[in-house]
Design a protein that fits this description.
This protein is mainly beta and 222 residues long. 9% of the residues lie in helices and 36% in strands. Strand 9 (149-156) and strand 10 (159-164) form a beta hairpin. The chain starts with a helix and ends in a 5-residue tail after the last strand. The model is unreliable at 1-21 (pLDDT under 50).
């Protein structure tokens, strides 16, 4: 009986290592201590680390925090799964950007390229948490943003999926030769990949990110 218990414990440990071990393909982008590997495009004071989480609170205009990974100007990702664990203070706005870069719109501070996965707990904003901003919009949030929740974003070829706490909110395939309104002309996937970025939307909004990790995937062949 004692040996059987040892064997069962060993098997459980092995199973855990296969699920969560260093060889499962996931990379943590945030070390839980500081902003090493990250850079802000503007207003760097908008970003701090508090109680083991990245704290986003814009000092004035919108600021974005890019994962650089020690590369210049940032590390590019093409196909991947991205998992973010986050929560907000009440009435807060933020977002997670994929396939983006440092270009921003004059006068607004909004990023010009890539897609935004909306994070929003404000009453008046019509696009709620889990939306693929201005492409697939949700009228109702699937979570209480004051509590920690998990966002899982997947990019495989032209297909983007989003799940919030395990509930799928987006399953979108970008059409060939997609056309966007002029103010959102850069809202599309880049075949060369792009940056991962977090948003500090405005001085009244506070979002916290306690885990950001990515699982790069082999590019999908057409």
């Amino acid at each position: 009986m004692f040996l059987n218990r040892i064997a069962i414990a060993a098997l459980a440990l092995m199973a855990c290592s296969f699920t969560h071990g260093a060889d499962d393909g996931w990379r943590s982008l945030f070390n839980g201590k500081d902003l090493d590997g990250w850079r802000a495009n503007v207003e760097p004071a908008s970003w701090t680390v508090k109680d083991g989480a990245i704290r986003a609170n814009a000092t004035r205009a919108s600021s974005h925090l890019f994962y650089s990974g020690g590369q210049e100007p940032f590390e590019r990702f093409i196909d991947f799964e991205l998992e973010v664990i986050t929560r907000s203070e009440p009435e807060s706005n933020s977002g997670i950007f994929i396939h983006t870069d440092l270009q921003s719109q004059a006068g607004t501070g909004h990023l010009q390229t890539g897609y935004e996965i909306q994070l929003n707990s404000t009453v008046n904003e019509k696009r709620k948490t889990g939306s693929l901003y201005a492409v697939v919009d949700l009228a109702t949030s699937p979570v209480d943003e004051r509590e920690w929740f998990t966002v899982l974003i997947s990019v495989r070829g032209k297909r983007i999926t989003v799940a919030v706490n395990g509930k799928q909110t987006v399953d979108y395939t970008e059409p060939e030769n997609v056309q966007r309104p002029p103010e959102r002309a850069g809202r599309m996937l880049n075949p060369l990949g792009g940056a991962i970025a977090l948003q500090a939307h405005d001085p009244k909004s506070v979002f916290l990110f306690k885990s950001v990790r990515i699982h790069p995937l082999p590019p999908v062949t057409p």
